[in-house]
Amino acid sequence: MQTRTAVLGSAAFLVVAPGTVAGLVPWLLTGWRVDPPIQFWLPFQVLGVLILAIAAVVLVSAFIRFAVEGFGTPAPIAPPDRLVVGGLYRYVRNPMYLAVLSAIVGQTLLFGQIVLLVYAVVIAAGFVAMVHWHEEPALRRSFGDEYATYRKSVPGWWPRLRPWQAT
Question: Each residue of 53-62: pLDDT tens digit?
Answer without folding.
Answer: 999 999 999 9
